[in-house]
Design goal:
By secondary structure, this protein is α/β, with parallel strands linked by helices. The chain contains five helices and 14 strands. The longest helix is centred in the C-terminal third of the chain and has 22 residues. It is globular.
């Protein structure tokens, strides 16, 4: 299975522009034979820790406008994982949709949201793609080992981690390396491959992200890492079939 992690400039309140970038990237991904493409946390509308902003940006998965966008940017054979603020009933969730062939095939909601007003997700779905099974943990979920372990127990061989490490400059510097270390610890303690997709740039209010996109093998070896401070895309070929393996259950505290 060929996978790709896209590191892209952060966009804010620019859904149409984000959809254009996604359409361009996914057209390129299909031409490159990419089976699964990962994009950053809350990429579609832009991330925020502000409750009012998150609620204003949130979109329902049955919104015709959202589905029209998905039909435009995820029309091909490449499966895309795209982060967004999701409106569900009266709640707001920090979610990631799984989309392919112009439709949403599923959604994962962040189990441990740090964003004010966001509800925690309770489900840990997995999906099959090209003889592999994958699941999603979003950003801070990796601090809690059980979130990745739940996916591994369901047979996932790949854990996809959309992140958005846009922080105050001193915090962005502080969390850059631990962000990669968290992926390595997750991989070693689950026996899964792990890939992360982050944003780069600034939000215009002094917050910055260096970019912590990476792909890590089950032994914790970083096999691909994005260049800091700039847009990048990581492409890696996993084995044609997911290896048979037992779930590696170890006590762990995963720090990011």
């Amino acid at each position: 299975m060929r996978i790709a992690a896209f590191q892209r400039l952060a966009l804010f309140d620019a859904v149409e522009q984000a959809a254009e970038v996604l359409a361009r990237d996914l057209a390129w991904a299909e031409a490159q034979g990419i089976d699964l493409a990962l994009f950053p946390e809350c990429y579609l509308q832009g991330h925020s820790y502000n409750e009012a902003i998150a609620r204003r940006r949130a979109l329902s998965l049955d919104d015709p406008d959202l589905n029209a966008l998905i039909a435009r940017f995820a029309a091909g054979r490449t499966t895309a994982i795209v982060g967004l603020f999701e409106r569900r009933n009266d709640g707001v969730y920090n979610s990631a949709i799984v989309a392919k062939s112009s439709r949403i095939n599923g959604v994962y909601a962040k189990a441990h949201p740090l964003e004010k007003g966001c509800m925690p997700g309770r489900d840990f779905p997995v999906w099959d793609e090209s003889h592999w099974r994958f699941g999603i943990n979003i950003c801070a979920d990796l601090r809690y080992p059980y979130t990745a372990h739940r996916l591994a127990r369901k047979g996932a061989g790949l854990i996809c981690n959309p992140v958005n490490l846009m922080l105050r400059p001193h915090k962005a510097e502080m969390w850059h390396r631990p962000g990669i270390s968290g992926l390595q610890i997750c991989a070693r303690h689950t026996g899964c491959w792990v890939m992360a997709s982050d944003v780069v740039g600034s939000n215009g209010d002094g917050w910055v992200s260096y970019g912590s996109s990476a792909i890590v093998d089950p032994n914790g070896v970083v096999v691909a890492k994005a260049k800091p401070y700039c847009e990048d895309v990581l492409v890696f070929d996993l084995p044609d079939r997911q290896p048979e393996r037992g779930f590696v259950q170890k006590a762990a505290v995963i720090a990011t």
